[in-house]
């Protein structure tokens, strides 16, 4: 995973040292709002405040800031790619993103609670590095220790329409002609791709769970509730999200937490016996 993590031990007197990220942060690939400012002349405390202000903007959920930004096709994670392409995840020209910017981006999707820190925490590969110095290269996730144990290959190593069309064969077409992915349908697709992965990452510690959590998260964040209150995402919306990083039209971020994902994982693991079609599944 050379080039993915940048781990710098805190030097003596680091409280007086200019943040080495400052120069890179001047060239953030974003939407041009005022949060994109130079940090060079600020003392450390003021620099930290400037970094926070850099993320003080609302989610571009209406798609108005969408663009195929530099390196968009190199980001193998569909959620991070979508956030980046819509200007909600600040990434520099080389592909680096900080822990603070990751946290701010996932919060824009509506995520609340301790899961924010869990999703954005980069301390595992850099246990002795202060949070403000930790960063990751999104353009070099492929082949790194952060790549999932297995994947669909829909974005790995680059967007692949044929792989998505294979996934689409597992959707539920009984509700409407365009097709829907409920938990049960995503499970069928994931089961197929786990048996037929585009590659395997033997260095990944997730044991095949990350692909499940990823798609349960996609369903929670960008899905919709049907007439009976069950979460689904349509085939066209999932296609646009995975292949092009486009938010679903009309998407409005709503609050969610790890409990929502746990509910869907339980549904996934019980083959729908926990949350069958005639019963709502909630955890409170």
What can you see in these coordinates?
It contains ten helices and six strands; from the N terminus they run βαααβααβαβααββαα. It is globular, with a radius of gyration of 19 Å. Helices cover about 35% and strands about 5% of the residues. Residues about 15-25 have low confidence and may be disordered.
Question: Could you give a quick summary of the protein structure above?
Answer:
The chain has 284 residues and is mainly alpha-helical. The chain has helices at residues 22-25, 44-54, 78-85, 99-108, 115-120, 161-168, 183-195, 210-222, 235-244, 258-269, and strands spanning 5-6, 96-98, 135-137, 180-181, 224-225, 231-234.
Largest sheet: 3 strands, antiparallel
Gyration radius, rounded: 19 Å
Q: For the largest sheet, list the strands in their spatial order.
A: 1-3-2
Order of helices and strands: EHHHEHHEHEHHEEHH
| Termini Cα gap | 39 Å
Q: Which stretches are poorly predicted, pLDDT < 50 over at least 5 residues?
A: 14-27
Number of strands: 6
> How many helices does DSSP assign?
10
Mean pLDDT: 83
Structural class: mainly alpha
Quaternary state of this entry equals: single chain
* Shape estimate: globular
Strand content: 5-15%
Percent helix: 25-40%
């Amino acid at each position: 995973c050379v080039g993915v993590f940048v781990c710098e031990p805190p030097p003596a007197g680091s409280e007086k040292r200019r943040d080495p990220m400052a120069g890179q942060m001047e060239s953030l690939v974003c939407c041009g709002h005022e949060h994109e400012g130079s940090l060079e002349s600020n003392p450390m405390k003021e620099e930290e405040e400037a970094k926070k202000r850099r993320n003080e903007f609302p989610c571009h959920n209406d798609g108005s800031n969408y663009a195929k930004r530099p390196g968009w096709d190199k980001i193998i994670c569909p959620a991070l790619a979508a956030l980046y392409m819509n200007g909600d995840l600040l990434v520099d020209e080389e592909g680096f993103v900080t822990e603070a910017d990751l946290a701010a981006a996932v919060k824009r999707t509506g995520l609340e609670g301790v899961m924010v820190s869990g999703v954005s925490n980069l301390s595992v590969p850099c246990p002795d590095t202060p949070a403000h110095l930790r960063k990751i290269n999104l353009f070099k996730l492929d082949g790194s220790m952060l790549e999932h144990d297995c994947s669909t290959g829909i974005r790995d190593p680059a967007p692949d329409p044929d792989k998505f069309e294979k996934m689409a064969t597992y959707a539920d077409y009984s509700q409407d002609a365009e097709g829907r992915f409920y938990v049960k349908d995503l499970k069928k697709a994931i089961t197929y791709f786990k048996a037929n992965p585009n590659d395997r990452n033997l260095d990944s510690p997730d044991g095949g769970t990350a692909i499940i959590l990823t798609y349960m998260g996609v369903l929670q964040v960008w899905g919709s509730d049907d007439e009976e209150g069950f979460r689904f995402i349509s085939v066209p919306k999932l296609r646009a999200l995975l292949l092009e990083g486009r938010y679903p039209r009309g998407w409005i971020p709503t609050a969610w937490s790890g409990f929502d994902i746990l509910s869907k994982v339980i549904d996934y693991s019980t083959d729908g016996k926990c949350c069958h079609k005639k019963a709502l599944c909630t955890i409170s």
